[in-house]
Structure formats: C-alpha cells, structure tokens
Amino acid sequence: MRRRCAGKGPPVRALAPVALMMLALAGGATAEREESGQGGLARVIASSFRARGQADLDRLRQTPMQLACSVARPDALPADAQQRIRRDALQTVRFPPDGRWLGEWQRGEKIAQSGTGLQYSDPPDAPRGGNCYGCHRLSGTEVAFGTIGPSLYRYRQRNASDADAMRRTWIRIWNTHAFNACSMMPRFGDAGILTPEQIRDVMALLFDPASPVNR
Questions:
Q1: Which end of the chain has fewer CB within 10 Å, C or N?
Q2: Helix residue spans in the chain (DSSP H)
Q3: 72-116 tens-digit pLDDT
Q4: Nearest-angstrom CA–CA distance, 214 and 87
Q5: What domains are there in the chain, each with its CATH number?
Q6: How many whole angstroms from its chain centre is CA 61?
Q7: How far apart are CA 157 and CA 207, in angstroms?
C-alpha cells in the first residue's frame, strides 16, 4: 500500500488546528482559550516525539505559511495574506543554474512510485521518494492512484513544452504555494524532500514524450 501524498507520513503539525476546531465546536472557546489550548497541545506533542531515522523534530514547527493556513480556512484567508504567501513562496524557488530542466524519466518514474523518506523507519541515508501516485494519476495503465490532486496523465499534450511551461512546472514541484497559497501539495524542493536532480527526473517524467505519462 502506498503512503500518503506527502511522502512523509501524516504531519504531526496538522493535529493542532483540528483539535482547536473541535474545542471551538464543543464549547465555544474564546480566542484566549484557543491560544492557550494551542500552546498546551503543542507542548504535549513536542514532549511525545523523539527524532529518529529521517524524522526530525523540525516537522513539529510550522512555517508562517502553515500557521496562516491553519488559523483560517483557505477560502477565508484574506487576499493580501494569500498574495504574501505566494510571493514569499516564489522567492524560495531555486531554478537549475545550468538551464537544464529535464533528467531521466525512468528515474522520475521510480521517484513518483516511491513513498519512502522522512519517516521513522527510513535510514538517514536512504533516498527519498515523491509518492506522486498517492495524489495524482500519471499513467494510462496505473490501476491505483490518488485523486486529491489533478490528473497528470498526458501532461505534455495538455501543456506547452516550452521553457515557460517548464519553469511553471518546476515552481509547482519546488513550492506550489507560489500558485496556491494553502495548497495541500508538499513543498518538494523548499522542504528538501527531493533534491534538484530528483526534481529534474520528475520533470522528465512529465515532459518526455517517451514516458508512461505521455503514452
């Protein structure tokens, strides 16, 4: 069975906003009680986990983007806050310095199929996967795939394959929040889940006409 689309197990940080929402529904918590509850819950979570394997405690700390998207529903986040998140996300993107967008689609296919990485059971030096099939359809023969994200089947045919299209796709993989402020897609480049070379390989999977995505 494949793991969830983040390729790193259920993020612990997602527990806090859910718990706070339940408190609010149950007892009409005030803002002060929510703030106090969030701090107490964060301390309990922090005391319950230990770094092991590839799972470090940095996953317990929310980024400003995660904090903003946790407090308000994505559709209720003010427009200026969304714009700020998108702008800041774009600034994190590192483009290929040599201008080479594509690697090997065969390696990209293995990365897309693999859900390993950033979990307690993963050795520190083990390569990480993207688990792309956990959220997207990629090939015409895949019988099990996630539907959280849009289908990427025949990506090249449905998108231009010029430098501008490749730049946009690279940004989405590196830090998709540059387009969608509160996207559920992992920040594969910004969060260090995949290396730039691995991202090149995933790009090849999407754009190479010989890849299973485009056949």
A1: N
A2: 15-27, 31-48, 64-71, 79-92, 105-113, 155-158, 163-175, 196-207
A3: 776 788 999 999 999 999 999 999 999 999 999 999 999 999 988
A4: 32
A5: 1-215 (1.10.760.10)
A6: 16
A7: 9
